[in-house]
Design a protein that fits this description.
The complex is a heterodimer of chains A (about 120) and B (about 110). Chain A has about 120 residues and is an all-beta fold. Chain A is built from no helices and eleven strands. The model of chain A has no long low-confidence stretch (mean pLDDT about 95). In chain B, a hairpin with a 3-residue loop joins strand 5 and strand 6. At the A-B interface, strand 5 and strand 10 of A face strand 4, strand 5 and strand 9 of B.
């Protein structure tokens, strides 16, 4: 079955860096784009970044542009989120999610999600 | 960026009720609208994509529709397991794919 497992979260001081990983299994990883979505404590979902299946295209939310970098290693079925210059407002559960595109190529959605990994930015 | 405004932010309904949640886009997004359900302490789960297509395995009491830039998630015959927060998400054009603020559904 499709499975996404995030890791790498923890407590980090403001200004420091952290790298999250998301290991995928149960599907052909290099056929799918991948996304990161976060959720601050008690708050709603915030889209963070995505990367195309071949890794050639990436997009970021304005709130993380220039500080976060998304990458993937298709040989390891893993997507990463490198986070630097972390701020208190980056504190959140970070989810990775798989993007599925309709057969017509018209529609897309996030149909598989990991359990999330908590990042706490605090001194 | 396209903003999504969801309403209400919370609601309380009884078992068997019909519940309606609305999401309004700040710009035209055609039918590029998905709905997710997030139960307490869990990851989000896809309910509906492309405005009205039910994801496999989702009960038929869930449905989606649109009118102009207004999108609606309807839950017919509300069940105890529907206790959750529901989010809309637009996927028009290149990301960012913005989410609505969420609607928390409580059972009376």
């Amino acid at each position: 079955q499709v499975q996404l497992v995030e890791s790498g979260g923890g407590v980090v001081q403001p200004g420091r860096s952290l790298r999250l990983s998301c290991a995928a299994s149960g599907f052909i990883f290099n056929n799918y784009g991948m996304h990161w979505v976060r959720q601050a404590p008690g708050k709603g979902l915030e889209w963070v970044a995505n990367i195309w299946s071949d890794g050639n295209n990436k997009n970021y939310a304005d709130s993380v542009e220039g500080r976060f970098t998304v990458s993937r290693d298709n040989s390891k079925n893993t997507v990463y989120l490198q986070m630097s210059s972390l701020r208190a407002e980056d504190t959140a559960v970070y989810y990775c999610a798989r993007e599925t595109i309709s057969q017509t190529g018209t529609w897309d959605w996030l149909d598989a999600w990991g359990h999330g990994t908590l990042v706490t930015v605090s001194s | 960026d396209i903003q999504m405004t969801q309403s209400p932010s919370s609601l309380s309904a009884s078992i068997g009720d019909r519940v309606t949640i609305t999401c309004r886009a700040s710009d035209r997004i055609y039918s590029y609208l998905n709905w997710y359900q997030q139960k307490p302490g869990k990851a989000p789960k896809l309910l509906i994509y492309a405005t009205s297509t039910l994801q496999s395995g989702v009960p038929s009491r869930f449905s989606g529709s649109k009118s102009g830039t207004d999108f609606t998630l309807t839950i017919n015959n509300l069940q105890p397991e529907d206790l959750a927060t529901y989010y809309c998400q637009q996927t028009y054009k290149t990301p960012p794919w913005t989410f609505g603020q969420g609607t928390k559904v409580e059972i009376k």
